[in-house]
Amino acid sequence: MPTKIEKDEITGKATTGHEWDGVKELDTPLPKWWLYVFYATIVWSIGYYVLYPAWPSFSSYTTGALNYSARSDIARDLREQAQQRAPFVDRIRAASLEQIRSDPQLLGFTMAGGRSVFAENCAACHGSGGSGAKGFPNLADDDWLWGGDLEAIHTTIRTGIRSSHPDSRLSQMPRFGLDGMLTTAQINDVAEYVLSLSTIDTDKAATQRGTAIFSENCAVCHGDKGQGNLEVGAPNLSDKIWLYGGDKRSVTQIIANSRNGVMPAWADRLDEATIKMLAVYVHSLGGGR
Amino acid sequence: MPDGTAPLTPATADAAPSIREQRTEQPLYAGRIKVYPKKIGGTFRRLKWAVLTLCLGLYYVVPWLRWDRGPHAPNQAVLLDLPGHRGYFFDIEIWPQEIYFLAGLMILGALSLFLVSSLFGRLWCGYACPQTVWTDLFMWVERLIEGDRNARMKLDQLPWSLAKVARKVAKHFAWLVIAVATGGAWVMYYVDAPTATRAFFTGKASTELYFFVGLFTATTYILAGWAREQVCTYMCPWPRFQAAMFDEQTLTVTYRAWRGEKRGKHKTGDSWEGRGDCVDCRQCVMVCPTGIDIRDGQQMECIGCSLCIDACNGVMDKVGRPRGLIAFDTLIGASAPAAPVNWARRLLRPRVLVYAAMLLLVSAVVLTAFAMRTTVEVSVLRDRSPVFVTLSNGSIRNGYTFKILNKTREAHRYALDITGIGGAAINVVGADGVTPVGETVMLEAQPDAVATYRLYVAAPRPELAGESTPLHFHLTDLMTGSTAAYQSVFLGPKR
Question: What is the mean pLDDT of chain B?
C-alpha cells in the first residue's frame, strides 16, 4: 500500500509512495500508446471469442464461428495421414518380405511403422529395444528358438507360440520330475551335463552319468550335442544364452517342471501389412538371419 | 551536409521547451509529445552521417555480394540458408552443429558493447543502433519534404489543406519506400537476393517472403517514423541496465554547469563577468532527437548522439567563448574546472579490465575453436535399448549410430578404426558380414551431407574392463588425410 505520496525534490514529480530501503519510485505516467496496445488486445480477444471456442456453459461451451476444435483437427490429421500411408501399405501388402527389405523407400516406411507397432504390442514382454527379459526371448541377439530369418519371424508373429491359433507353433517339453520320468539324482546328473555343454565347470562324474540320460531323453529335441532344433523350438543348450537362467538351480527346475512359454498369435489382432512391417523390424534388431 | 551555424532564436523556454518542461501535469497516461529536432551541422553530425552511410551501405549491399563456391552451392557471399541448414559467410560454411560459433559471436558482441559502454558511454545508442540509424534517415527525409523544425511545427498547426495533405502523403510514401527496401533487404540474407527480388516483383515469391517483407516494412515504418524516441525511452531494455557499466570515468555527453551557470541572455558588448557562458539560447534542446534539455543533467532519455555539442559549439563560436560548454567528457572531468585527465584512472578501472579480459578470453576460445575446425566430424550415439546384447558365443555386443559430417563439396571415403578393447569387431549393418578384427572399415559420405551408419561392435567378455569400457572411434579421410575422433563407451554386464 502506498503510504507517503510526496513530491520528489529533484524531478518535481510525485512518488508512488512505494519505498524500498530508501529508494522511492517516481509516479511516471505510462505512455498512451501503451494503453492503446492494451485496448487492442481486448479488441483482439473479442474477435477471438466470436471465432473460437471460449465460454463454458453448464453442459457445453460456445463453439465459435469457425467451429474449431482440436479434437476434430486431430481426427482430420489422422485421416489425412492414413490416406498418405495407404499407397505404402498397399505396396507392403503386395511385396514379399525380402522385397520390402531391399527397397529403401519401403524399408524406411516399414522401420518407422514397425518401431511404433513394436512399442505398442511387443515391448511389454520383449522390451523396448527387443532386449527381452527372463522368460521372454531377446530379439536382438543371434539366438533363435523358432528361427531368425524373415519368414520364420513372420510366421511366429502371425501364429504365435502355443497360442490358440490353429497353425500355432507347438511343442511341449515333458515334466521329467513332476511326472516321475527321471529321479532326482538323474535330473541332477543331466543338469550337470547340460551346464557342461556351455563350458561351465561341472562335477565330472555327474556329467559323465548325465551324458547317457541326455541322449535318451533330451537329444531328440535338443540335438545330440545340445545344439537345439528350430523345428520344434528347442533351445540351443550349448551357447551362452539362457532364457530362464544359466545356473544349476534354474536348469534343474526346468528339467523337473518344464517351461512352456506362450506368445499370442497376432494374425487376428493386426492386419497383414502391419505384421510384415513388424517382421522386418524385428529382423533388423540385431539378430536377423 | 551544410554546417550548422543557425541563427539564434529568441531565448525563451516558450520557444523551445524540453519534453520535461512541456509535461506540466502528471496524469496516469501521457500522450507522446512530438519532438521536432532542428537541423544542425558539426563534427559529431558529420561523424553520425559517416556511420549511418557505412551501416546502411553494408546492410543494403552485402546480400548482393557474390562468392563462387562451385556447383550445387549458393553463390551468395552472406547467406543464412535455413531450409538447407547452412550458414554461408564468404569462405566460411557453418553447419547447424556449429551454431556455437554464432553464440560465440553474440557473446563477443555483448562483451564489446559492455567494454565500449564503460569507456565511451552510449556510442552504440547514439550512432550505430538500427533504431538511431533509421530514425536519422527518416528525419532527414522528413526535413527534405516538410522543412526544418519551425516549418514542420507550423505545418502541423495549420488546418488541413491540399498542400498539407500533399506534403504528408509524400513524406509517408517516401518512408514506406525506405521501409519496403529495409524489409526486402532483410529477407535477402535468408534467400538468394537476385532470385528473390525477381520473384518479389513478379508476384511469384512465397507467402512467407511477402509476409516477412511486410513485417519488417511495418516495423521499420512504425519504429523509425512514429515511435522514434519512444523506443529508446520505453521499449528498449538497454538504457535501463547499461548504468551498471557506467561510472564517473565513463565518457558521456555532459553540460559543464560550473562554466555555464548562471545562465542568461547576453548582448554583444555585455560583460561576461559574474555570469556563466550559457546564453540560454536553447539550441541544445532544439536539436535533441529525444527532446530533452542536457542542462538538466544525466538523463535516461539521452542517447549520447552529441548533436547538442555541435549546436552549443556553434553558439560559443558566435558569442566568442571557448567551445566545450557541452562536451563529450567524463562526469569527473566535467564536474570541475581544469581537472587534468588521469588516463590510468580512466582506462585501468576494474570493470574495463574485467570486460577486456573476458573479451580476450572468449575471442581466444572462439578463434581456437575456429582454427581447429575440420571438414569432417563424427558423432556417435550409443544404443540405449538394449544397453548391450549377450551373443551365443558369450561375447558382448553394443550398437552405435555413427554419423559422418562431410563438410566438403565432394564425396569422400573414410577408414574407421576402433581402439580401447582388444578383439572388438565392427559389423556395419547392411554391409556383407563382419569385418575381421583389426581390419579397418571403409565408409563413405556424400558431398555436403551427413552419412548415418548403424554399427555393431562385439567384444569378448574377458576384454571388458567392467560395466563400462572406453571405446575410441577414429575416422581418417582417405582423400585429405584429416581425422576425426570420438570417445564413446562400451557397456557390458557386471563382473
Answer: 90
